[in-house]
């Protein structure tokens, strides 16, 4: 493994030049390093920086719907999905830790909004995989959150008892078992634990979709759809698809946290 000192990018706005090769990038797709034009176009209606799930979702949703789509320039510093998107576990679910964090702050309404939003992702992925005929090993199945230390497991058991019967508990079961989990800790994080989406405060015509705290597969696709609605139809965050949690909106206050 390389040390953090040889992973310094020459430009801090660019991803590191020498990433490890993830499993998902061992058998490369023809679009991996695709350039649709020899030289970069001098102009485009919409410029998207980053061809991970967030950027690709915005581009996809901009190209859908009625009327002719805007011209889109999708820029990628390395290869398509070579960042977090090409190196994740691919699990689409609400992490129980995220639910517990919200419950600790008494945000029970946000728990329901978040679980509905993530649930909508599972349907949206199934739909897009079938509609576009994507060869991506999609599987609809059960998943497990495994607690590797007794303190966290005890906190979960306590919350489970306290919140029994709430809607989010109905699609879940608590199982006592001896499993262990390893997490890589490579992820974009935000201070309040939620992603940022929407127009960047004070930067007219610039939008952000980022900061998924290790759960981007469950939040970026439909947040991308929402950002595409803002860009294409000049909508404020408040008027995009109501499934998108309003507390994902990027604001000066959230950026200053
Ligand atoms: C090890 C690991 C496991 C994970 N497991 C899960 C999981 O099981 N379930 C889940 O929901 N989430 C998981 N995640 C999180 C999830 O992968 C991310 O939240 C999600 O992929 C973020 O997508 P993104 O498009 O925002 O970012 P990225 O996929 O990182 O895409 C950003 C892209 O932008 C490019 N870029 C950056 N800067 C520039 C620039 N200046 N110019 C041009 N291009 C640029 C990068 O090269 C990159 O391709 C995991 C993450 C990791 C690292």
What percentage of residues falls in helices of 4 or more residues?
25-40%
Strand content is: 5-15%
Shape label? globular
The count of helical stretches stands at 7
Distance between the ends: 33 Å
Count of structural domains:
2
Order of helices and strands: EHEHHHHEEHH
Unreliable stretches (pLDDT < 50, length at least 5) are 1-6, 179-186
Bound molecules: flavin-adenine dinucleotide
Got a strand count? 4
Strand order of the largest sheet: 1-2
By helix and strand content, what is the structural category?
A: mainly alpha
Query: How much is the radius of gyration in Å?
Result: 19 Å
Task: Profile the largest sheet.
Answer: 2 strands, parallel
What's the rounded overall pLDDT mean?
87
Secondary-structure map with pairings?
Layout: E1 46-49, H1 53-62, E2 72-75, H2 96-104, H3 108-132, H4 150-162, H5 167-170, E3 196-199, E4 207-210, H6 220-233, H7 252-255
Helix pairs in contact: 1-6
The structure holds flavin-adenine dinucleotide.
Q: What would you note in describing this structure?
A:
The protein folds into two domains: 153 residues, no CATH class; 75 residues, no CATH class. The protein is 31% helix and 6% strand. It is built from seven helices and four strands. Strands 1-2 form a two-stranded parallel ribbon. A two-stranded antiparallel ribbon has the order 3-4. Helix 1 links the parallel strand 1 and strand 2. Helix 1 crosses helix 6. It starts with 45 loop residues before the first strand and ends with a helix. Flavin-adenine dinucleotide (FAD) binds next to helix 1. The site of flavin-adenine dinucleotide (FAD) has 35 residues, from helix 1.
